[in-house]
């Protein structure tokens, strides 16, 4: 693990105490099975109808996993490098009787058997923590069974450029769409470094790893809104998220 990833892991271990401090609220939210947005449900409906075994790299608080099970997944294995996050997610799944299992590990390099998953589900703030997108895509392809699917619902790569001004959208002077990386100044903070990938890089990397792109769409709605903020950039004129569905060939 490189020094930046180690520092990011430390930042997440600190920030992840939020999922312990707010455990009851997250448990109640998980119980509703509502964490998947309509875009995700629409694109995953057919895949989930086949009761897939799911792997969720960078699984975070695990609320998506409960929702995937409620929507039809047979089981979910979540992989995350924060022991605090994994502990809270496993406890919630156990309390709700959901067939979810969590593993503490960095991604890429998931300690899972090859061809163990029908669906790899990821996103909502995942790809920005990947310093090596090629290795990530290869790891995803490795755990997928033939004809298995990768689904990504993620912040649009242009999002780091938008300011949170409420009167009108502006571009941050300290960010570049084609930059290599920048320091995170929202959540988890603590000096964590985000990696910047263009949409073209993401799509090309997935395809080069042996997956056929079935769907790619861009959306004005953000997957996350900071509490108390009503940014003009979220008003429908700019891309704030994207969805990608691919199949292993």
Key phrases:
249 residues; Rossmann fold; two-stranded antiparallel ribbon
Question: How would you characterize the overall build of this protein?
Answer:
This protein is of the alpha/beta class. It has a single domain, classed as Vaccinia Virus protein VP39 (Rossmann fold), CATH 3.40.50.150. 33% of the residues lie in helices and 23% in strands. It contains 8 helices and 9 strands. The strands form 2 sheets. It has a 7-stranded mixed sheet, sandwiched between helices. Helix 7 links the parallel strand 4 and strand 5. Helix 3 packs parallel to helix 5 and helix 7 crosses helix 8. The chain is globular. The mean pLDDT is 96.
Give the gist of this structure.
The chain is of the alpha/beta class and 249 residues long. Helices cover 33% and strands 23% of the residues. It has one domain (3-248): Vaccinia Virus protein VP39 (Rossmann fold), CATH 3.40.50.
């Amino acid at each position: 693990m490189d020094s930046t990833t180690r520092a990011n892991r430390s930042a997440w271990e600190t920030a992840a105490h939020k999922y312990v401090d707010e455990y009851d609220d997250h448990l109640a939210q998980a119980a509703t099975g509502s964490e998947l947005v309509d875009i995700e449900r629409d694109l995953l409906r057919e895949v989930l109808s086949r009761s897939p075994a799911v792997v969720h790299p960078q699984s975070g608080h695990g609320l998506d996993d409960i929702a995937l099970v409620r929507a039809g997944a047979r089981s979910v294995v979540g992989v995350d490098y924060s022991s605090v996050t994994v502990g809270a997610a496993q406890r919630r799944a156990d309390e709700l009787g959901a067939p979810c299992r969590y593993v503490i590990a960095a991604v890429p390099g998931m300690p899972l058997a090859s061809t163990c998953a029908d669906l790899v589900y990821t996103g909502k703030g995942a790809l920005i923590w990947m310093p090596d997108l090629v290795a990530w895509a290869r790891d995803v392809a490795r755990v997928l069974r033939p004809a298995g699917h990768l689904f990504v619902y993620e912040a649009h790569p242009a999002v780091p450029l938008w300011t949170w001004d409420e009167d009108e959208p502006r571009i941050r002077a300290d960010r570049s769409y084609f930059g290599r990386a920048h320091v995170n100044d929202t959540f988890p903070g603590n000096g964590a470094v985000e990696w910047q990938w263009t949409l073209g890089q993401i799509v090309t990397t997935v395809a080069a790893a042996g997956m056929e792109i079935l769907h790619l769409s861009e959306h004005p709605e953000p997957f996350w809104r900071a509490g108390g903020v009503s940014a003009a950039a979220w008003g429908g004129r700019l891309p704030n998220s994207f969805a990608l569905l691919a199949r292993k060939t």
